[in-house]
Structures are given as C-alpha cells and as structure tokens.
Amino acid sequence: MRILVAGTFNAGSQLAFAINTIKMADGFSKQGHKVLIVCHSSKTSNFKVEDLRIQYGISSELKWFFLPQFLLGKRVSNHWGFALLALPVVIYFHPRLIYSRTAILAWITSRVGIRTVVEAHSDPNNKQGYFRRLIEATYHRGYVKWITISNYLKDGYMEKGAKVNSIVVIPDAVDLAMFCRPNIIPDSIFTTDNNIVYAGHLYDYKGIPTIILAAELLPHYNFYFVGGLKRDVDRHVRFIKDRGIENCAFLGMKPLSEVPKYLWSANILLLPPSLNHQSAYYTSPIKLAEYLASGTPVISSNIPALRDWLSEEQTLFFEADNPRSLANSISELTTNKTLASKLSRNGKKLANKLSYIKRSRSILDLVEKL
User: Fold this and answer.
1) What is the mean pLDDT of the chain?
2) pLDDT score at 321
3) pLDDT tens for residues 172-199?
4) Residue 94: what are its φ and ψ, rounded to 5°?
5) Is 34 helix (H, G, I), strand (E, B) or coil?
6) Distance between CA atoms of residues 295 and 12, nearest Å
7) N- or C-end of the chain: fewer Cβ atoms within 10 A?
8) Residue 282 in contact with residue 153, Cβ under 8 Å?
9) Are the beta carbons of 356 and 26 closer than 8 angstroms?
10) pLDDT digit string, tens, across residues 8-26
11) What is the pLDDT of residue 322?
C-alpha cells in the first residue's frame, strides 16, 4: 500500500513530534508498504537523505519529499501554507492512505475522500482555527481515525464535538532495536559514579528546575542533561552558576542515534514533568518508552498522565515539583538494588509492548477494518 506521511517539521529536527512522525513512517515501511515522508527541507543546505537515515536509525526504503520553508521571502505557515504545498505531492504520489500530523492537510484530504488518519495531541481547549478543522474532519467521508495519546484528550475532543467513536488512544512508542541495552554493553561515556540523566527538552514544565534543585541537595551525585535548545541550555547554565551548583552538566542536543548510550551509561533516568501545567493530564513523552527500553531504572513525577501508563512496578514515583522528594527518591533507588532491578526488569517488559512496529500495525488494523 502507498502511504504518505506528512509533518510540518524540518528534516533533521530533534523535536519529539518529528521523531515520532518519522519513526511511524519507518514502522509502516518495515511492514512492506511504500512510504513517502513529506516535511520541510532542512535548515542546512548540505544535508543528505543518508544522513537522515543514520540520524534517526530508519530504513533506507523510506522516500522523502521536502517542501520549502520560505516562499517569496516569507515563511510557509504550518497549516494552510504547508497543506497547499503538499497537495500536488499527494496528487502525484496517489496514496491509498495518508497519515497526517498536520490538521489542515488532513481536513482537506479526508474531505475529498482520501483515506486519512490524523494524529494530534492538542489541548482540547485550543481556540485556533486548525483545531476546529480537526473536529470537522471526523465527519468527512475519507476520515479513518484520530490518534491521540490519552483518554483525557479523547474525552476533551468528544466534548468539543468530534464524531462518536472517531478517536483512538495509543501511547507513544520506542524503537526497540535502537534503545534496548545490547548484550555487550559499551563502555560508559561518564567517568564518574552516581550518574543521573535526563534526556529531552529543557522547558520548565518538563521539571528541569526540580532536577536542578534536587542536584543542589545531592552534591555527591552527578546530573547530566541531554538535549534542549541552546537558549534553554544557556538559561539553566546561568541559573546553576548563580547558585554555585557544580554537579550539573548540560550536554546539548544530540542526534537520536547517540541518545541510547547516555541512557545505558546512567544509574538512574529522570522523568519529572511538572504538575503545574495542563500537559500533566495528557502527556505521553517519547522518552518514557525509550527510558524503559534502556533497562536503566526510572524515577517519575506522580502526575495523572504518567499514572495512566505506569505503576510502582515500572517506576519509582516522587511528588511532582518537590526537589526534596526527588532527592530522597534518588538516594533510595541508588541504595536499594533489589528495587532498581525490579524496575529495570518490569520497565523492559512494558517497553516491549510499545514498539513503533506494533503502533503502526495497530493503526493499519484500523484502516483494514473499514
């Protein structure tokens, strides 16, 4: 089957949204389908498709089509602009299915009768026009399903008028081949002991201030932050310098293919989203499944969204936004080897259910039922 996968990211992006979309395309491809990814061109002019294959750890069978970021000196919008540029590609490729991470394109293709699956995790209280189009699309003749990541979001979309039985909840996934700890473990990239790692963006609502203040309470532990935009890295570096905190290191953004070795080298991985943000009720972070697959024990904030997917069998919960609670949990897990082993073992079992292959297969099953 010919499947067109569309997303409004730049080729080479390290955003979770981009990684999720590309990995889903790879999942479709590995099941024997002919897949074309449509996205924006890279910010750099010298990149190659082979570089993307290595960076994301994806199949060479995937094909790409790059839309310009700018036209006539103006940035192409992520809604109507992207959709109008993508439509000629849709006509040329003639897909049997479109998997869209952009609302307006999904609204158009489902309206003209092309079978369309849309994935969106927007807040149900979104007031923007594209969100209203998403709700409308659930009534179009080509519409298949709206994929989202929590029952909170599903219920919110239904309250806003989405068609009954039009939405399916599927958690985010992991590339098991990339993130599972190998039998022969590579040498640790850290030269210290008691290495605590967070991988992902450094926005405050991700719980970064809580980690930093917990690190201040644990001077004999070493905290490493993998990822984040430069402006966020710089902001947090200034903060730790002002407070005289010396056991935090910000390593910056890394290609996806390099992230697993940081997870394998850690003693503990941190997943500390804040409760003081609406996403605490619906987030399903990609790093959750990646963390679990790595086999390194995980400490998570006790927020409703994570409780939807995790229990005390797979993670050690701490009180969200409480640095002392996080510090105590880190101390407990580093000294309780039995608990650490249990979390590692059960985490890997859960991760095995969250592969991109299984996620893409579940979506194709929905299509085949029509």
Assistant:
1) 94
2) 98
3) 999 999 999 887 777 788 888 899 999 9
4) 50, 65
5) strand
6) 27
7) C
8) yes
9) yes
10) 999 999 888 999 999 999 9
11) 98
Q: What torsion do the CA atoms of 132, 135, 139, 141 make, to the nearest 10 degrees?
A: 80
Residues near 26 by Cβ (< 8 Å), separated by ≥ 6? 35, 56, 58, 59, 62, 175, 356
pLDDT value of position 45? 64
Place of tokens 């719980």: 207
> Given this model, what pLDDT does residue 132 score?
95
**Percent of the chain whose predicted confidence (pLDDT) is above 90:** 81
Alpha helices in the chain (DSSP H): 16-29, 49-56, 80-93, 103-111, 129-137, 151-159, 176-179, 208-217, 230-243, 259-265, 286-294, 304-307, 323-335, 337-351, 356-368
The letter for the amino acid at 204 is: D
Cα(83)–Cα(78) distance, integer angstroms? 8
Cα gap 150→144, rounded to integer Å: 18
- As given in the structure block, the two tokens for residue 154 are 């599903």
User: Facing residues of 168 across strands?
Assistant: 147
How far apart CA 101 and CA 6 sit, in angstroms, is 6
Separation CA 109–CA 80 (nearest Å) = 13
Helix (H) or strand (E) holding 40: strand 34-40
